[in-house]
Design brief:
With 435 residues, this protein is an all-alpha fold. The protein is built from 20 helices and no strands. Helix 7 runs antiparallel to helix 17. The longest helix is centred in the first third of the chain and has 33 residues. It is globular.
Length: 435
């Protein structure tokens, strides 16, 4: 007798679903929270761990250590995908949240170059690499977990909370860093203040581990294992058998890979250093736009369960093509309210596609290679485009001579994702694929 994953999984209690969502989302929160905090305190970290008479060289080394985490993501995607699709989602997710929390905490406790010499930057770089490996397996695994625990009629809504968590992490990290920078002296910030945000990784990691270890395996993977449908080499099978879905998935992810980093991470630097706004205005405008964007995500995610994923993907990417350049021109205004309006306009255009992106990619792949398909689709575009987004934006400004040039990068990504949206099947009202 064949055991099948229940269509829609409607028999699962609402409390169990909420626990699954929270357990899956907490790792992503730590990941992006750490990302923002590291960026905000890059100048402090540069002086403490990469001391040099050349300030620019010191800062460059700091961001090089940061880039290591992006280079390591595909490695983590391959390792954790194999484990997740062969042995189950639960254990790899428990391991990944431990690694993220431990490496973040190590950075917060790490002695400086003045205290332990060259070991300090080496350990910092290694910690960033471990973070990258764990994040490479975390993102796809968490999405698999949420989508496979969700009822069919609410799958878009539930996976949308993962995207909401990313925005919340960016907002929280930025707010914490801003408050510390404003309330502490430069000496206190350099001495111990910068460490405080990183140490949050300890309690968050313990909470995430506790929640994940208390959950059962997802119904879909349990059914696949009961049916002996688990494949021996899921990564190879995923690439060979699901290559079209992989191409579509990566195309869908191109826009979020670019927009998250250009619109919400690079923005404070762009507003301050390129456009000449004050540091306070740059950070405040970014936080307001992030809050607005986060509020939109659950609304569009829920709407996708009613009208489908494709209409929102098409609407979001078309909107980005239409409004991005005018919005970037608004960012050059000397009026703070106009700047905030420009950022909120970008957030509004980006939110429909962003809200449904994870559900779309999860629904492209069968249970046997879903972890693999998600991990590769998510991590490859983020590694190539997200990690390099500030560099590409800076190069475009230099090459074109216009401060609004980063808009062209966003528009190009939106066009790629628009093509992928048309190529993707509509899966909002279908069961998750089992084969």
């Amino acid at each position: 007798m064949t055991v099948r994953a229940p269509a829609g999984e409607t028999e699962l209690e609402a409390t169990q679903r909420r626990k699954a969502i929270l357990a899956a989302c907490i790792g992503n929160f730590i990941e992006y929270y750490d990302f923002v905090v590291y960026g905000y305190f890059a100048s402090v970290i540069a002086k403490l761990f990469f001391p040099s008479s050349d300030t620019a060289a010191s800062l460059l080394l700091t961001f090089a250590a940061f880039a290591v985490s992006y280079a390591a993501r595909p490695i983590g995607a391959l390792i954790f995908s194999h484990l997740g699709d062969k042995h189950g989602r639960r254990t790899p997710l428990a391991v990944s949240v431990i690694l993220i929390a431990v490496s973040t905490t190590v950075i917060g406790l790490l002695p400086t170059h003045a205290q332990i010499g060259v070991a300090a930057p080496l350990v910092l770089t290694f910690a960033r690499m471990v973070q990258g490996i764990s994040v490479g397996g975390e993102y796809g695994g968490a999405t698999s977990f949420i989508s496979e625990y969700s009822a069919r009629r609410k799958r878009g809504y539930y996976t949308g909370w993962q995207t909401f968590t990313i925005g919340l992490a960016l907002f929280t990290g930025g707010a914490v860093a801003t408050i510390l920078s404003a309330s502490l002296s430069d000496a206190a910030l350099s001495s111990w203040g910068w460490r405080l945000p990183f140490l949050v990784g300890v309690p968050l990691g313990l909470v995430g581990l506790y929640l994940r270890m208390r959950l059962d395996e997802t119904p879909h993977f349990a059914a696949a294992r009961a049916n002996a449908d688990v494949v021996r080499a899921p990564v190879l099978a995923g690439i060979k058998q699901q290559w079209r879905s992989l191409v579509i998935g990566m195309g869908v992810v191109v826009t979020p890979a670019i927009c998250v980093y250009i619109l919400f991470v690079y923005t404070p630097t762009y507003l301050g250093q390129v456009l000449g706004h004050s540091r306070f205005e740059a950070q405040a405008a970014n936080l307001i736009a992030l809050a607005f964007y986060c509020a939109l995500i659950p609304c569009f995610a829920r709407l996708s369960d009613r009208i489908g994923r494709k209409p929102l993907m098409v609407a979001g990417t078309v909107a980005l093509v239409a409004v991005t350049y005018p919005a970037f021109l608004m960012l050059g205004s000397g009026d703070f309210l106009v700047v905030v309006l420009g950022l909120c306009l970008l957030g509004l255009a980006f939110a429909p596609h962003s809200a449904v992106m994870l559900a779309v990619v999860a629904e492209l792949f069968p249970t046997t290679v879903r972890y693999t398909g998600l991990s590769l689709s998510l991590n490859i575009p983020v590694t190539l485009l997200g990690g390099t987004a500030p560099l590409i934006a800076t190069a475009l400004i230099s090459w074109s001579g216009t401060t609004a040039a980063p808009a062209f990068f966003v528009i190009a990504g939106a066009i790629v994702s628009l093509v992928a949206a048309f190529a993707a099947p509509e899966t909002a009202h279908s069961d998750l694929r089992t084969a």
